[in-house]
Design goal:
Number of helices of chain A: 21
Order of helices and strands of chain B: HHHHHHH
Radius of gyration of chain B: 25 Å
Number of strands of chain A: 2
Distance between the termini of chain B: 48 Å
Oligomer: heterodimer
Number of domains of chain B: 2
Largest sheet of chain B: none
Number of domains of chain A: 1
Distance between the termini of chain A: 68 Å
Structural class of chain B: mainly alpha
Number of strands of chain B: 0
Strand content of chain B: under 5%
Helix content of chain B: 55-70%
Chain lengths: 517, 150
């Protein structure tokens, strides 16, 4: 096992440590930080916007760049959360809880430095876990059959929906189905039959994944900035942000060190779960640390606690690295952003899954090793540049929004050179906007769309192998285990609320009896 | 809306052409769309009929969209549509500059100098990177050919 890991690491080092790829990691981190810092734009948008740039690169370099953009965007999101209380995405909401009060107390530099050190530690520790567990899981997964893959995809899609939050599970599941429906548009690869093309030549190859990603995220997020009349980005004067010191004292380091260690492990484990991602990683780390904190420290939570800032920052970065485990080993994305990266992998002509570990080891290990490098770049180069990056937050919305729209439209047009795609993007953008207003989440749609083709192939193959019987869903113990996990994830929230309501019912009955007696 | 979409999708799935041989098979090009249409209808009906678990309750579209700046958003969407239509005729540079400036204007910018300074260098730089550095051919607008300029 260790021999394989060391040779893999060497492959990763030889892939990443070439000047061109080092420059790509640096560029990715830089662009990710810039885009992630803009209020309203998160890592999904950042990665989607950068995909067109990667089309001219080889797959390993492309993935190295996108991985850099991903953690750069999370870092950038933390910056806008801390400085102007405008989290770029849900994963950095918990950062704003203590980061923003700390900045308001006159310590924006310290808050950003703690966020950067925590991100670095969380990212680095979880990359070590990733290096150990990913090859193990990938070697086990080589024995997977079509039926297992089909079951795994169902598990991934269900998990993404199950973590959608209270009241949102059905909506998220419906979005998964909509994504799967969109994936059926175009020529059926097996039979050559056209489906839902309405005679249009442009739809013969199906809907371009980049087009859908841009329309549902970049365009709608830019339009949301206009719709919601959010003036937060306009009200900031970057000259008002003082950066007296980016230093953190030894005492403060000692205070946050155990938090970083615990949150790294928790964040990684949460990230590995398909669908959980960085948001859950950050909130659960924050919650865990608040529960473990002493009463005096707990009282500081929400008012600028250093632990309250370090925990979610470590948690979301650890979870981001963790979400690469299902992506690299099983070809199942762990989050919306890794779903977009999966789409990019497929576009590069790489079949994601355990075979990638043996067939494209340079991509597998290149991504892992580039994470180390990215974490170092973020700490050493991006942190001192933050005061200058922050000026970006002062770009007025009337310039920023049209530029985001322009880059999104261009990103697709310069890949396909088809003006029909621009019209299609607008149609998807309007539909996505309407769905967002009705609180339908977009990440499950994208996940369903990306996995749709693979799911249909695996279902077809499984049925063929098992003589057209759906017994493949339970005949193999592994498939049965995966399906039972899916059922558990799907029905656990219902079971829990049922038990809770029974408990409450009993409680109120006891109270009534007490009151009567 | 999703219920209607799923129903329409299901009806269109019946129109997917199948060869005689394919019709005898268990899994055809229609199988997945049928299953998805049924799933979509069931889920849409469940959302419509089941009591909501959302603590905020089922909010109407009117409540969700109260206070939103629809005028600017609609104008931006129209600008995007026009951009897509003009790209072929005006070419990348002119269509992009018009789109960006129209976007800035919709969002309240009135200084022509600022608008041109923000749009022209950006578009020309992007065009230069794509066509000169990366060697990507970006077709000039049809209008230039029609006017005999090119």
């Amino acid at each position: 096992m260790w021999d394989g890991m060391i040779s893999g690491m060497l492959t990763g080092i030889s892939t990443t440590m070439v000047p061109f790829n080092i420059a790509l990691v640096l560029f990715g981190c830089f662009m990710g930080s810039l885009i992630g810092m803009l209020p309203g734009l998160g890592p999904i948008t950042a990665v989607a916007l950068m995909i067109p740039v990667t089309y001219g690169l080889d797959p390993a370099s492309g993935m190295v760049l996108l991985a850099g953009v991903y953690y750069g965007a999370i870092f950038g999101g933390s910056t806008s959360s801390i400085l102007i209380n405008a989290p770029g995405e849900a994963a950095t909401v918990a950062t704003a809880l203590d980061g923003y009060p700390l900045a308001r107390q006159g310590y924006p530099g310290k808050a950003l430095a703690i966020a950067a050190y925590s991100s670095f530690s969380g990212g680095t520790i979880s990359v070590i876990f990733l290096m150990i567990f990913a090859p193990l899981l990938a070697s086990v997964a080589t024995s997977f059959q079509s039926a297992d893959y089909f079951a795994l995809m169902i598990l991934g899609l269900t998990a993404v929906s199950a973590f959608a939050g209270r009241g949102g599970v059905l909506k998220a599941l419906l979005m998964v189905v909509l994504g799967l429906m969109l994936a059926t548009v175009g020529t059926d690869q097996t039979s050559g039959v056209q489906r839902f093309t309405f005679g249009s030549l442009e739809l013969l190859d199906g809907i371009e994944f980049l087009l859908l990603a841009m329309a549902t995220f970049a365009l709608t997020e830019a339009l949301s900035l206009v719709l919601t009349r959010d003036e937060s980005s306009d009200s900031l004067d970057p000259k008002m942000i003082g950066f007296k010191s980016l230093k953190v004292s030894k005492k403060e380091f000692k205070l946050i060190a155990p938090t970083i260690a615990r949150s790294s492990v928790l964040g990684f484990l949460i990230g590995v779960l398909p669908g959980a991602g960085a948001t859950l990683g950050s909130f659960m780390s924050y919650g865990m640390e608040r529960n473990l904190a002493s009463p005096e420290e707990r009282a500081k939570f929400g008012k600028g606690s250093l632990i309250g800032l370090a925990a979610p920052e470590t948690g979301n970065n650890a979870a981001s690295s963790g979400s690469f485990v299902p992506l690299l080993c099983l070809g199942i994305p762990g989050s919306g952003t890794t779903a977009v990266m999966l789409g990019a992998l497929i576009a590069y002509g790489i079949e994601p899954g355990p075979r990638m570990f043996t067939e494209s080891p340079e991509v597998f290990w290149g991504v892992i090793m580039s994470m180390y490098l990215g974490n170092v770049f973020l700490l050493v180069l991006n942190l001192p540049l933050i005061p200058y990056f922050a000026r970006l937050l002062a770009i007025p919305k009337n310039f920023m929004v049209p530029m985001i729209l322009f880059f999104s439209l261009m990103g697709v047009y310069l890949v396909t050179f088809n003006d029909f795609d621009i019209q299609m993007m607008v149609i998807f953008c309007i539909a996505a906007m309407a769905l967002r207003l009705m609180n339908f989440p977009m990440a499950p749609l994208l996940l369903g769309f990306i996995l749709g083709g693979l799911m249909e192939d695996n279902l077809r193959r499984s049925l063929l192998i098992y003589d057209e019987s759906i017994a493949f869903m339970w005949e193999r113990p592994l498939t049965l285990g995966i399906n039972l996990t899916t059922l558990f994830i799907l029905f656990f929230p219902m079971l829990r609320s049922l038990l809770a309501s029974r408990k409450n019912g009993k409680g109120s009955q006891t109270e009534t009896v007490d009151a009567t007696s | 809306m999703m219920l209607l979409f799923s129903m329409a999708y299901g009806l269109l799935a019946f129109k997917i052409p199948l060869s005689f041989m394919a019709e005898q098979e268990f899994f055809t090009s229609r199988t997945m769309p049928y299953a998805l249409a049924v799933l979509g209808i069931i889920l849409a009906l469940m959302i419509l009929l089941l009591p909501t678990a959302d603590p905020a309750g089922k909010r109407t579209i009117k409540e969700e969209t109260r206070g939103m700046d629809w005028k600017k958003a609609i104008l931006l969407v129209m600008a995007m549509i026009i951009y897509g239509l003009t790209m072929k005729w005006f070419g990348f540079i002119i269509a992009s500059v018009i789109f960006l400036n129209f976007g800035f204007w919709i969002l309240g910018e009135r200084s022509i100098k600022k608008m041109l300074l923000a749009s022209l260098p950006l578009v020309i730089l992007l065009w230069f990177i794509m066509s000169t550095l990366l060697g990507v051919y970006i077709a000039p607008g049809e209008l230039f050919y029609m006017l005999g300029i090119l």
